[in-house]
Design a protein that fits this description.
Keywords: Hydrolase. This is Thioesterase domain-containing protein. Belongs to the thioesterase PaaI family. It is a single chain. With about 140 residues, the chain is α+β, with helices and mostly antiparallel strands. It has a single domain, classed as Thiol Ester Dehydrase, Chain A. Helices cover about 25% and strands about 45% of the residues. It is built from three helices and six strands. The chain has helices at about 5-15, 20-25, 55-70, and strands at about 25-30, 30-40, 80-90, 95-110, 110-120, 125-135. It has a six-stranded antiparallel β-sheet with strand order 1-2-4-5-6-3. The longest helix has 17 residues, at about 55-70. The model has no long low-confidence stretch (mean pLDDT about 95).
């Protein structure tokens, strides 16, 4: 029998956070949080110049990295972002759907170092690195 993971407790609350629901944030693959997230670039998520709002890149990478980390930690864990750096390298245009992915680069000593990216139409539009403080039960 596998040990219960933290993701079992946090997946639905994270996806149902009012902001995430309003934006239309969803799992890339239903039932598989490790596959990343998707978001449509629509009038509510785009700038007046019809590209994804720059602040959303960081939100997308942070939430994706959180779910990636939560899938690896035991139930009762906690994590919070203490540092993040996002680079926007291209535009995601109105009408496109962006996809995110993340990975754990290092986990130990109460810290998690993570990387993530946002893609649109198969092209990377943003990358990011995060540090999260981690408390296990």
């Amino acid at each position: 029998m596998t040990e219960p993971r933290w993701i079992d407790d946090v997946l639905e609350p994270v996806l149902n956070t009012p902001l995430h629901r309003t934006l239309g944030l969803r799992l890339r693959v239903p039932g598989d949080p490790s596959a990343g997230l998707e978001l449509d670039v629509a009038t509510g998520t785009a700038t007046p110049t019809d590209v994804l709002h720059g602040g959303l890149h960081g939100l997308l990478i942070d939430v994706t990295a959180f779910l990636c980390l939560a899938a690896e930690l035991p139930r009762g864990s906690h994590a919070a972002t203490i540092s993040s750096s996002i680079s926007i390298v291209s535009a995601a245009r109105l009408g496109s759907t962006v996809q995110t992915s993340a990975r754990i680069d290092r986990l130990g000593g109460g810290m998690a170092f993570l990387s993530g990216q946002v893609e649109s139409d198969g092209q990377v539009v943003a990358t990011g690195q995060l540090v999260k403080i981690v408390k296990r039960p």
